[in-house]
Each structure stands twice: as structure tokens, then as C-alpha cells.
Write a structure and sequence with these properties.
29% of the residues lie in helices and 26% in strands. By secondary structure, it is α+β, with helices and mostly antiparallel strands. Strands 1, 2, 3, 4, 5, 6, 7, 8 and 9 form a nine-stranded mixed β-sheet that branches. Strands 10-13 form a two-stranded antiparallel sheet. Helix 1 crosses helix 2.
Amino acid sequence: MQVRAVDLPELRATLRSFAASVEGAEYWEDHAATVDYYQTLKVDGADLRAIVLDALDGDLFAVSGPMGELAATAGGSLELFDMEAQDVPSLTGVLAFEAPPALLQGADWDGSLMTLHGAAWAVREAGEGGCVWITPIAQPSDSTEPLLGGPRLLPFSMADQAPAMTREKNLFDFLVTTLRAAWLLMVQPLADCSEVPPSRAIRKRLRRINNEPASVRLIDLRRPKIGNAHGSGNRDYHYQWIVRGHWRQQWYPVRQVHRPVWIAPHVKGPEGAPLLGGEKVNVWRR
């Protein structure tokens, strides 16, 4: 199943209806009673239900296929950093990948095959010791529709995240790294953000169930600008070379913090000079 930007308001309404139902309450109670993770955190079914409903009431974001693949790839090299509430695009939100990245498709920790279409999140605390609950939107291989998974806690503190780095990663871990990268990328110049209203048919169906339709912010990949071809400073370069995509720390004076900024792949060096490695490279030019 593909979740297009125009489909996200209706999908959110369906997931919320389940989460708020009697069946949903039993689902969260079962999670809280059988998963050691929730027992360690002293979280019960009512807590899980409140967390999920809060997240599903948030802003809607859709990520295009190319931007999703970039977030998945860039997320793999994104170093941990102490997060703040300002690093998340909204305190509560729902994000769906229009084409789920390959990294979010496959076998989960228990061997079951599934596709992660996105996630809902809710920031619970701000400042030092803050955290965000992330609820995956997953589609098991034996299901025709996306379903809600169990929420997991993402601490803002880098020290609190360290234990998770010592175990083998599963699909949810890849979802977290992809999400963190997407949150950073969507506020950078390489992202193009536009409003996508639900279709007329979807608006009518949502209003029929007393659900006011909301617009979706579509995050797409903008063609990157190419920097100074001759390099920086007064150095005289005689070759061209490929600069791979990478993260660079940038200082934000207003917030008094450093945050990773993605530098897109590009060719550097004087126009017409020999390319080191001898390969021909096609570069997007704005």
C-alpha cells in the first residue's frame, strides 16, 4: 500500500478511531502487560493510549520518495547529539513516507516481515531530560492496511541513548535514525515544503465522521545549489574531485547550539579541470 500525501488525513482518522476504541484499549493493555519494555518504564495501557492519541492529533507531514531515501541514507551517518524540543518540527505530529525507504522494509526483530510507512510522535518533556514517544505506522506482510505499533521512547539526552547503540539494530531503530535525519533535513535549503489539501472525496468522508480534514505538509527534495567550484579561500586547484554527501556541524547563534547540516554530494574544483578518479559525474544544477 502507498500512503500519498492526500491520503494521510484519512489514514490518521482511521488509526485514531482504532486507538480510541474498545478494541484499541485492549490492544494497549495487552502491550503494557506483555512487553517488558513498558513494565520497566512503569507504563500501563492507559498511558500508551494517551500517548498515541496525543501524537495522532498533531500536524501532518508527508515525505516524498527521494527525500525519504535521502533521510534513510543520511540517517545512517548521523551522529547522536543532545536533542531539544526545537529539533522536532512540532510537539506532536504524524509523518508518512510516500514511498517507504528500502531500509524500512524487511524482517523485524522477531522475524516478521513488514514495511514501516512512517510514525506518529509526541514530545513529553522539554529541556534537559526531555524525550519524545515514537509510534511506528507499520504494515505487516499479511495485512492490507498500515497499523499502529507500540510506542518507544527516544530520550533527548545522548547519554541516555548510548545503551541502544550496543545491540543489533532492528527496523524500529532504522525508523528512528531516518526520522531524526528527516526532521533535520526538512528545515534545510535542500527541502521544498508545500501544502497539500485532502481531495474533495476524502474531505466529505472525514466530515461524515465528524473529523475536520487538515492539510498535509509535503517535504520534497529540492535540487541542490552547487557551491564555489574553485574551492574556498585563495587556494588554486588544478583538478576536480567528488565531495560525497556528509553531515557538518553548524552553529545556530539564536539557540546557542550546534546542529548537523547535510551537505549534498557535489563536484568541487575549477570547471574543465581533470576529474580525480577519471569518472564522469552528473551533477544537478539549479
